[in-house]
Design a protein that fits this description.
The protein has helices at 12-17, 21-25, 61-69, 77-90, 120-125, 131-146, 184-198, 205-219, 223-231, 247-253, 256-269, 289-294, 306-315, 352-365, 380-390, 402-411, and strands at 3-7, 30-31, 39-46, 49-56, 98-104, 107-113, 118-119, 149-150, 159-162, 165-168, 175-176, 277-280, 298-303, 323-325, 338-343, 366-375, 414-421, 429-436. The protein is α+β, with helices and mostly antiparallel strands and 449 residues long.
């Protein structure tokens, strides 16, 4: 199998330490993060410092075409990342110091030195990024974009701050072009990526909007273009989209035939027993409420949108159930506060980290069972979304397999009881019920809300 290795560092000790690919791969290393489908990153701690070796198992055909038709032209992901990094550093921007690139068969390798400082996500999580630093970061990222560096992966975990110095990494999807305002489509993608990377941190919406507006202004957009880009972003929280005038009522009245089909599926997997208390979160306008009451349950309705709770109050048959304004990823209930939790038509709006947090919270709050719906990746619906993603449209729906959802529940002490699909391999909606392996008894349960 053909192997190549090109050293990019002039440091004599580093050239000896990383003399060739086999020598580099033989060094002690630990995973730098979870492996994805096509690449993984290793962290190498050496006497010369910390380095990261990124391995791309292969270069996708769409990337090969993009690397051949846009600058800087490259054969594979590793070479593209090195060339974008070098161009950024030559322009005076912060990026990891490249050490080497290589190939072995279809795989490509990129070795770089660790960036000093702390990533933006960690700083925000620790409350250690004051307004002045946020402005500096937004200004630097906007300046990079205005200088012609089109970097779609600017999530908070890819932006580092070391004193006053801002640097970026994970650049293999970037490209270089002439200076000027970047395409609006790219800016929307960047801001969506930034949003997803910090959405679970509880940042105030105004803080995020000010950061985005400053980045767009420095990138070269005027006020009208900035408003247009910000207008294409989804609401800061999933619940907030329903607080717009008339949105909650429109949601409650849409597609009754589909709702009835889905309620039939819900009954097929339902593990609840008459008399048990069930939390419906997010409850929306209460479309599950009549069915849950027919099944003999005492219902608590919770949602992150005040407008949805008001809509449910206006529509629900007496008696109105207890209504709670709540975040599904941080439920305001004691462990085992209810017998069961149903999370219906919600997980597909959330990326994996947030969806898993919601599952964990549901498992904590339930004493006996949890029922969830989710979108499955093996469907024509999901294939259409993937095709749209290949042409640059950011994802707004997220799919995961039953195996993934099952592992999340197993980690929380639940086992799968039953699952059902609306139309396997055609439609993407699946439902599954999970039962706690060690049931919380009435004596263990905290008082119900």
């Amino acid at each position: 199998m053909a192997t190549s290795w090109q050293l990019l560092t002039d440091d004599r000790d580093e050239r000896v330490l990383f003399a060739d690919l086999d020598t580099t791969l033989a060094l002690p290393a630990t995973p730098a993060g979870p492996r994805n489908r096509l690449r993984h990153v290793l962290r190498l701690v050496t006497p010369r410092g910390v380095f990261f070796l990124k391995q791309f198992d292969r270069t996708q055909w769409k990337n090969r075409w993009r690397f051949a038709t846009t600058a800087p032209r490259a054969r594979d992901d590793a070479a593209r990342e090195a060339l974008v990094t070098i161009a950024l550093r030559d322009a005076g921007f912060g990026a990891p110091r490249p050490i080497a690139i290589g190939r072995r068969g279809a795989a490509s390798f990129y070795l770089c030195a660790a960036l000093p400082g702390t990533d933006l996500r960690t700083l925000l999580q620790q409350g250690a990024c004051p307004a002045a630093q946020r402005r500096r970061i937004a200004h630097t990222l906007g300046a990079m974009l205005a200088a012609g560096f089109l970097l779609p992966d600017l999530g908070a975990e890819h932006v580092f701050l070391d004193g006053d110095q801002v640097a970026v990494l994970d650049l293999h999807n970037g490209r270089c072009t002439t200076s000027g305002p970047p395409p609006r489509r790219l800016l929307v993608r960047i801001l969506r990526r930034c949003r997803r990377s910090v959405q679970d941190l509880g940042l105030p919406r105004q803080v995020v909007l000010r950061f985005a507006a400053r980045l767009l202004h420095v990138a070269g957009l005027d006020a009208a273009a900035t408003r247009a880009v910000l207008g294409r972003l989804p609401p800061w929280s999933t619940a907030a989209r329903y607080d717009a005038a008339g949105k909650s009522a429109a949601y409650a009245d849409r597609n009754p035939a589909r709702t009835e089909r889905e309620l039939t599926l819900l009954r097929r997997v339902w593990p609840g027993r008459s008399g048990e208390r069930v939390l419906d979160l997010p409850c929306g306008a209460g479309r599950l409420l009549p069915t849950l009451r027919q099944l003999g349950h005492d219902v608590v309705a919770a949602d992150g949108s005040q407008a949805m709770l008001q809509e449910l109050r206006a529509r629900a048959a007496a008696p109105t159930p207890p209504l709670v304004l709540a975040d599904a990823a941080a439920m305001p209930f004691a462990p085992g506060a209810v017998d069961g939790v149903v999370v219906f038509r919600f997980l597909h709006h959330l990326p994996d980290a947030t969806a898993r947090a919601v599952v964990t919270e549901a498992c904590r709050t339930a004493g006996r069972f949890v029922v969830v719906s989710f979108f499955h990746p093996c469907s024509t619906h999901h294939l259409r979304r993937r095709l749209a993603g290949w042409f640059g449209r950011p994802p707004t729906r997220f799919a995961r397999s039953l195996g993934t959802v099952r592992r999340w529940f197993a980690d929380a002490g639940y086992s799968l009881q039953q699952h059902v699909a609306e139309a396997p391999f055609r439609r993407d909606l699946w439902l599954a019920s999970f039962v706690r392996t060690a049931v919380v008894t009435a004596a263990d349960r905290a008082p119900s809300p």
